[in-house]
Design a protein that fits this description.
By secondary structure, the protein is of the alpha/beta class. It has a single domain, classed as Carbon-nitrogen hydrolase (Nitrilase/N-carbamoyl-D-aminoacid amidohydrolase, 4-Layer Sandwich). It is built from six helices and 14 strands. The termini are far apart. The relative contact order is 0.16.
């Protein structure tokens, strides 16, 4: 299976241009699954609720989701991408999962970071796992189970563990990382759950209020054994495709005596 990781640099508020630029980055690269960054179409540093409402979109009828669906159909791929979702008076920091069949689901970020709490409602849907199709090297149709979490969800081990317990082979992780720890921490998340993780981050800076944010790049794919299969630079655009075998994530045995999930002793946990 071929996983594509997009590392972009959106210009704040330029939604149509950001979407066009992102889709042009993947146009010549074949992948079964693409992961785009968090808020890839709007930029990150909102400064008012009015601004959030103006730039967020309904899902799946909004123009960004419709453009992603069209791209998924055109390129015969599946896409996970982060965007601001509007539903009634609430806005969510969300990620859509789309395929050539259309919109599959939307995940709403559960663990909001810093000033996101001023603009977005916390996610109100449980973690879920979905099965997607891909073509094997022999031409047959295979299945891969993917789960989604967004950026700051990484710091809560329960996020990745929940997806692993639901049977995820790959954790798709749209991000706008500013803290330095996540790339290394996701090695542990993959290792402790024996899953692939695919973190798509952005680069560049935003300084729309008194605080300047620098995004750390380093988008990456990590194997169930904790091996970094690819890590992008800190400051450059990137669209990289990595080949994996999702079946590697289904073997939870560490040795002949230890199974990562079966050995859990839940009555001792809080």
């Amino acid at each position: 299976m071929k996983i594509g990781i997009l590392q972009s640099q959106p210009q704040f508020g330029s939604v149509a241009e950001n979407v066009t630029t992102a889709l042009s980055q993947i146009a010549t690269k074949k992948a079964d699954l693409w992961v785009f960054p968090e808020l890839f179409n709007t930029g990150y540093q909102f400064i008012s609720k009015k601004e959030v409402l103006a730039l967020s979109e309904p899902i799946p009828t909004g123009p960004t989701t419709q453009s992603l669906i069209a791209a998924a159909e055109k390129y015969k791929t599946t896409i996970v991408a982060g965007l601001a979702e509007r539903e009634g008076k609430n806005c969510y920091n969300s990620a859509v999962l789309v395929s050539p069949r259309g919109h599959i689901t939307t995940y709403r970020k559960i663990h909001l970071f810093y000033e996101e709490k001023r603009w977005f409602a916390p996610g109100n849907k449980a973690f879920e796992v979905y099965s997607i199709n891909y073509k094997s090297e022999r031409g047959g149709t295979m299945k891969c189970r993917i789960g989604i979490m967004i950026c700051f969800d990484w710091i809560f081990p329960e996020s990745a563990r929940s997806l692993a317990l639901l049977g995820a082979d790959v954790i798709c992780h749209p991000s706008n990382l500013v803290l330095p720890h996540c790339p290394q921490a996701m090695i542990t998340r993959s290792l402790e759950n024996r899953v692939f993780s695919a973190t798509a981050n952005r680069v560049g800076t935003e300084a729309r209020n008194t605080e300047k944010l620098r995004f750390i790049g380093q988008s990456q794919v990590v194997s169930p054994q904790g091996k970094i299969l690819f890590r992008a630079p800190e400051d450059k655009l990137s669209a990289k495709v990595i080949t994996i075998d999702p079946k590697e994530a289904r073997n939870k045995s560490i040795n002949a005596y230890n199974n990562l999930l079966k050995d859990r002793v839940e009555h001792y946990y809080f």
